[in-house]
Amino acid sequence: MNRHASPSLTAKAIVGGVASSQRHDSAHKHVTGQAVYIDDMPEPAGLLHAYLGLSTVPHGAILSMDLTAVRAAPGVVDVLTGHDMPAANDISPTHRHDEPVLATDKVQFLGQPIFAVIAETREQARRACKLAKVEYAEEPFVTDIRDIDRRAGKLVTPPLTLKRGDAQTAIEAAPRRLKGTMRLGGQDHFYLEGHIAMAIPGEDMDVTLYSSTQHPSEVQHMVAQVLGVPSHAVTVEIRRMGGGFGGKETQGNQFAAIAAVAAKRHGRAVKIRPDRDDDMTATGKRHDFVIDYEVGFDDEGQILGVDYFFAARAGFSADLSGAVTDRALFHCDNTYYYPAVKAQSAPLYTNTVSNTAFRGFGGPQGIVGCERVIDEVAFALGKDPLEIRKRNFYGTTDRNVTPYHQTVEDNIIHRIVAELEASADYAGRRQAIAAFNAGSPVLKRGLALTPVKFGISFTATHFNQAGALVHVYADGSVHLNHGGTEMGQGLYVKIAQVVAEEFQIDIDQVKITATTTAKVPNTSATAASSGTDLNGMAAQAAARTIRQRLTDFAAEKYQVPADQVVFLPNRVRVGNQEIAFGALTQQAYMARVQLSATGFYKTPKIHWDRDKGQGTPFYYFAYGAACAEVEIDTLTGETMVERVDILHETGRSLNKAIDIGQIEGGFIQGMGWLTTEELVWDAKGRLRTHAPSTYKIPLASDRPKIFNVTLADWPEAGEPTIHRSKAVGEPPFCLGVAVFHAISDAVASVADHRLCPRLDAPATPECVLMAVERLNREAGRPA
Amino acid sequence: MKAETQIRFLLNGAEVALSDVRPDDTLLDWLRLARALRGTKEGCAEGDCGACTVLVGRPTPQGLVCEGVNACIRFVGSLHGCHVVTIEHLRGEGGALHPVQQAMVDFHGSQCGFCTPGFVMSLYAMWMQDPDPSEAAVEKALQGNLCRCTGYEPIVKAARAISSYGTLEADFLATERASVAQRLAAIRAGGRVEVGTGKDRFVLPASVDDLAAVLEAEPTATIVAGSTDVGLWVTKFMRDIAPVVFIGHLDELRTISEHDGVLTIGAGVSYTDAFETLSARIPALGPLIDRIGGAQVRNMGTIGGNIANGSPIGDMPPPLIALGASLTLRKGGARRTIPLEDFFVAYGRQDRLPGEFVEAVHVPVPAANTQFAAWKVTKRRDEDITAVLGAFAMSLEDGKVASARIAYGGMAATPKRAKAVEAALLGQPWTLATIEAAMQAYPADYQPISDMRASAEYRMLAAKNLLKRFFLAHGGAEMPVMVTRERAA
Which stretches are transmembrane (chain B) (predicted)? Predict the structure, then answer.
């Protein structure tokens, strides 16, 4: 990679255009250890290290904080408390003023940062933290929303209600009705690179931050707010994260703010990196839910009315809990039409870390609640759940209005599911499994096919904008920058493909550069699966501006009509002659043509009135389905995923290799959420699962034994998205639901599928065994 | 005894001599901070995620052994006479990527890339042992590596294709093997190594006799074999472990022998080194050992250390107790041998005197008429800490239970025999009714606790059901009675 190859001037196609399976742009650096993460950067001379001191009680007033021994510890340069924040001790991302950088008068969860030690080495800072003497007046606390009245509990942010029709009347009038409750666990992001920030003080008010964040602009705004300086004084840069998954959308603010404050206090660079245990204890996770549901349906399994109550453990502050619980409601329909529906959210205050964004952003929780209702209906009628699913699918011309009154215009779920049902041989395996189970007293198999429809756009409409900056240098090489961040999802390479395509140059002529607030301002978080959709369009717009200037220049210089200027691979045909791209840009430069441009994009069509619960919050939907087969051990509850078949669509894919990687990875992450990943708080309010030794994400040996992933190659985005591709970040996470339902199906077999297992999630061996026991009891069988 | 005052080892082929090493300096911090080799990452600092995986080559009587280890919990002091190979050292022929690296690139095996150097090193270690690995072999090699992005599918595909990118014969480490072994042997030819002064020092004894002498003089020293447990005392609890005596380099403690049907396993034998013998002689132990930690932990962790530290959830003590194992403890020149089950006195307390150390464990191979099984139940199948582990050794005569030794982990404050259950079985006919009656005896043996791994209720139920599984697996059922990772043909 040292010498740059000259582009071919006779190629029929460029290397690395859109719709080609490009490798991740950093793959060769990943495998050689040369990819630089923030902790790997060369350190400025005099670098100091910060470490967080955490509260040791879950709720109470801080009576006194004796930091004498901390200050006296070897290497300690400074100790910061909330009172040392120069302008504001506030990093609440939704501006509710409910989240301090460092808690001052009271603590609201065990593990809340209350001071920060600044020392010559990280080891010294970390050891010194243990020397603090803090007195608390402890107060009653609640960690689990099952322990409180969920309909009357304190909320951290206003709830949402979606209504269409009169759900209660419809349920009461239905031939059949049932109600139930489900508990659905949370999830730690477990990005392999934990949170980290490094601040380098500059002149005047300036500070530059390297922050492992999905949302550099928010880090910029928060740091500016804490320091009391204009945004222009704060520059935030991030080349790559070692994973984000939503965990670095708002949660990086705290670390960046502390590093920045310390850096400005001491005029020295400051780095902060918590240990994994502290990272998991002190930063937010996926919201766990308790979902109450009531459904009315007919004898064929058609749902007539449904009522949901989605209560979530929000933690001590709002963070993004409002938007997350909103999105749970937006997905309580999944792929199904409800003639009448009411759905309410309750983002409940608890004395736990403030929960936050996580891939799917509440959507998966909505889908899990919805699919439970489908299962209930199926068991009540003694039908295969897949039959009930298909019976309730949204129509394509009618029965197509969502609980939020948006009409579903791009529904392709019928075909997706039909194709998967056939390719996975659902019917044949259903029979084979029944035969297996009949002859197998201990081991039981289960099968499930679950669909996904996922709404694409930020539901906060103003986030649906993006900017890009493209420079073409005189030699024809291109510098690309945009507001999206790279966390492994392959955003950078996809956007580079888009730009290479516009200029018709090989992708290695396009330099991918770190995201920085100094080049593209006011960016949105790289979140909501929108990174490519938004930034791709912005980069395309910038590139098109420059291409148009080059076209106009060439047309004028060579005296040909503009339509005779054609961009061919690595060259431009102008009239009858072909000019190397780099030669044309050189000529343009000499002629004083501006070869730099910004691009901007805002998603059209969308609007959302939260007070009314009505609008068109999503630009389009992404669809997919998964079919899972599992085996369970009815003596121990251990499970094994035997086979999974996935059919998923990403429109006209920009990069199939990257998209398949997102689907496989998303699926496994979703499966982990619903199986082995369990968060446990003890009676003292301590999170007991705060490291990989106690918190179990899937391993290679948890993959399905047979794993078939197929991209549906026939759909394209109905809307004019970037090259008619579709978002792929979050939707496949929801495919993991199939494994959960397959486990449920296997459990159900112990009572001949007459009782709904009502499995809670995650379906750990304990959860599965206890469900087996309960079904045996309820079916009147000896254990 | 005159001692060397510096440790010497090879780092990526170049010799390093250090005299300013603290006993608890970790290899990972040393690589990243002192050497600015930042390709090796910290993901968890507890040996569970594998992002810090490096190779450590060590000379053995059988030649140079090159293994993946967790640099985060490996102490620098233990590396005397070893060869540390990091991701920066990997290279293919003629400046190309190494075959492992190229396969990972071509199969899209990285997304965020942070875990990737660790995966590359684990796969490299696997490939050197097994250039044509089965899917199961790859999964085993990757038990100690977490990836949150890819879902592993492309990594497994890459792993199986490595040999299509290059041969082992041409591999740079393979070609250096003999010369590296020679250089390491020369380093190890010296006697005792002592680095540091006063309490803040560590010792690498010259021999087991020397170890005995060192411990007699310094009875409170922390003995460190594989550091898979002690490493966390440092990285997680910030405990002061000095002075430290490292024993992993003592070949005398790394031997396995068999006399009169009893295996004698030296206290320094790693799980990896024990695997071949134990799984051959006591087949039920093979799958159990395969589920202890990941490859990196099994390469470092020792059976002796697992016993000596007395964890209630150590995976080897219950099966060894069920097998009737005994333990030789040594203090100075004096040795005593006790039944293993008597070693565990109470939570965190073992029958080990100051200055005494575990020298060997003696494991009787079950007689032909003895049925033996050991099963571990965990939240996640691999690389998880036991919720419940049951081990059963039983013989039948005339359809009745003639002998029964049952022990559990995770059910009490120590690994513990199920004596009431055994009594309920002895002399009874081998029937489901007998098993169900014996299941009633469990509360007399165990009152398990609830924690993040499992509830007390689940532990009790699963423990009882493992006895039922044992019955079904040994004559009580025709059908398979446990889920396996093996693929149907």
Answer: none
Annotated domain spans of chain B? 7-88+174-246, 99-170, 251-364, 371-476
Element housing B464 (H / E): helix B456-471
Q: Chain B within 8 Å of A1 (Cβ-Cβ)? A: no
* Residue A409, domain member (yes or no): yes
3-class secondary structure, A211:
strand
Expressed as residue numbers, the domain containing A503 is 27-35+465-602
How far apart are alpha carbons A429 and A419 in whole angstroms? 15
**Quick one: tokens of A216?**
């550099």
Class of domain B251-364: alpha beta
Distance from C-alpha of A168 to C-alpha of A339, rounded to nearest angstrom:
12
For residue A37, pLDDT over 80 is answered with: yes
Cα gap A297→A388, rounded to integer Å: 11
**How large is the ipTM?**
0.98
DSSP letters of B284-323? THHHHHTTSS-HHHHHH-BHHHHHHTT-TT-SSHHHHHHT
| C-beta of residue A346 within 8 angstroms of C-beta of residue A159 | yes
Question: Considering the domain B7-88+174-246, what is its CATH architecture?
Answer: Roll (3.10)
pLDDT over 80 at A4, yes or no: no
Collect all residues of chain A within an 8 Å Cβ-Cβ radius of residue B451.
680, 682, 688
Q: Do both A412 and A487 map to the same domain? A: no
- Cα–Cα nearest to B337, from B345, B329, B347: B329
Asked, for residue A315, whether it belongs to a domain, the answer is no
Model pLDDT for residues B239-254, shown as the tens digit of each residue: 999 999 999 999 999 9
Contacts of A772 (CB under 8 A, 6+ apart): A632, A634, A637, A747, A750
Q: Which residue in chain B has the smallest CA separation from A190?
A: B148
pLDDT (tens digit per residue) in A356-405: 999 999 999 999 999 999 999 999 999 999 999 999 999 999 999 999 99
pLDDT tens digits along B142-178: 999 999 999 999 999 999 999 999 999 999 998 889 9
Residue A20: inside a domain, yes or no? no
Amino acid letter at A237?
A: E
What topology does CATH give the domain B99-170? DNA polymerase; domain 1 (1.10.150)
Mean pLDDT of chain A: 97
Q: Which of A30, A437, A764 should we substitute to test contact with B (largest number of B Cβ atoms within 10 Å)? A: A30
Q: Taking a contact as any Cβ pair under 8 Å apart, which residues of chain A between 211 and 250 contact chain B? A: 240-245
Asked whether B470 and B389 are in contact (CB, 8 A), the reply is no
Amino acid, single-letter form, for residue A27: A
Compare all CA atoms of chain B with the CA of A773 and give the residue at the minimum distance: B461
**Interchain contact, A676 vs B377, CB within 8 Å:** no
Residue A421 annotated as catalytic: no
- Asked whether residue A483 falls in the same domain as residue A440, the answer is no
Total number of domains in chain A: 2
Which of A544, A576, A602 terminates a domain? The answer is A602
| CATH number reported for the structural domain that contains residue A635 in this entry | 3.30.365.10
3-state secondary structure A88-126: CCCCCCCCCCCCCCCCCCEECCCCCEEEEEEECCHHHHH
Place of tokens 């006195």: B345
| Domain B371-476, classified CATH 3.30.390.50, yes or no | yes
* Boundary-marking domain end, from A552, A567, A602: A602
Rounded Cα–Cα distance for residues A219 and A235 (Å): 9
Q: Bridge-partner residues for A134, per DSSP?
A: A65
In a mutagenesis test of the A interface, which of B88, B124, B139, B148 is the best target, namely the one with the most A β-carbons within 10 Å?
A: B148
Residues A437 and A533 in one domain: no
Would an 8 Å CB–CB cutoff place A578 in contact with chain B? Answer: no
Strands A706-711 and A607-609: unpaired
Q: How large a percentage of chain B has pLDDT more than 90? A: 93
